Amino acid sequence: MPSLPPGQNPVPDGRQSRKAPERILITGGAGFIGSHLCRRLLGDGHEVLCLDNFSTGERGNIEELLSNRSFHLIEHDIIHPLRLEVDRIYNLACPASPVHYQRDPVRTTKVSVLGAINVLELARELKVPVLQASTSEVYGDPSVHPQVESYWGNVNPIGRRACYDEGKRCAEALFFDYHRQYGVQIKVCRLFNTYGPRMHPQDGRVVSNFLVQAMRGQPITIYGRGVQTRSFCYVDDMVEGLVRMMQTDPPVVGPVNLGNPQEFTIFELVNVILELTGSSSRIVFHPLPEDDPKQRRPDIALAQQLLGWHPCISLREGLEKTAAYFEQRLRHGAVHGFRPERGLQTARVPPSTDSGFQTTVPNSIEGGKDETRIHIFGDSDFGPCHDGVRKARGGAPDSPGACGAASGCAGAGNRAP
What we know:
Structural class: alpha/beta
Radius of gyration: 21 Å
Strand order of the largest sheet: 11-6-5-4-1-2-3-15-14
Oligomer: single chain
Order of helices and strands: EHEEEHHEHEEHEEEHEEHEHHEEEE
């Protein structure tokens, strides 16, 4: 198990002390956890670049941040290379719920593997730290309980969940190989079940499923007999853990479990939700999905040792906050049949705040006639690069661009119309 070198204190006690403002990239920044991390880092005084292709992330999660001059929205697919000038990278880009990652399993694997390579190459070029948001799914259906970081897992490599489980395992391998071979400064966290406001109401996870079904008076669906266990970490606690991990000294690389060690059966979770909502929904049982883990609970001794971190929000308190969020969405009719669209979902900002541009470039990964559109919204310190990726503008007008291309390149200090 990874441990701290003698005499080193990785982080100060209590909440992280504020550092000098930095430019921080968050891939998957419009997703559930990513949008909370954006707000946290903005609140800490940093400049945030939120990168997302909106395949599962929601624009509404970050809409209110668009007017913040320290926030920049970059619409880009992480399976394509990218160039940006940043000080730190959080890699959260990947569909994380079975209903999402099983819809296009090949693409899910690409996001995990090619996405990891792309952020690692960027971190290698810039010589900046990069944090990988890995998952408890690397443990599969565990035979060791609770799960410790030294446990190698029990994963079905050819099952329906393998696109996510093995994709994340491969991403971890890439992170450690880049660290050993190229000296990239890495941080790897294994995130256990997380919940809270801005979860997608129909992402298929138990908390969102049960809350929406209870509030609508619909039957509550339990897979199996409800005796399988999970631990549930409130999103604010999870974000605190991620920030603390990023701020550790370079020798601390992980992997480190982040999650709530308090364990509940699925049936216990249903009872708490029925009590909180006052719902009279009945319970229906369905067969357990393939490879669904029977137990899931993190051992967080390493996080406590290295980060001084442990969850603070109780399940009941967190569910109350989450229920209030879903109630608001239901009231405004914002919960409906979820039909994710493959590829890009073009996002537009209101005319009063649109200071971005749009460019179209060939799809360099998948080939064919597809195109990748990249949009950057927010402050105007960025320019397009000739190879379809982005880098902070470094050249004066009519000079070679930040990408080093000739002055005819759109990125050569010229603003797109």
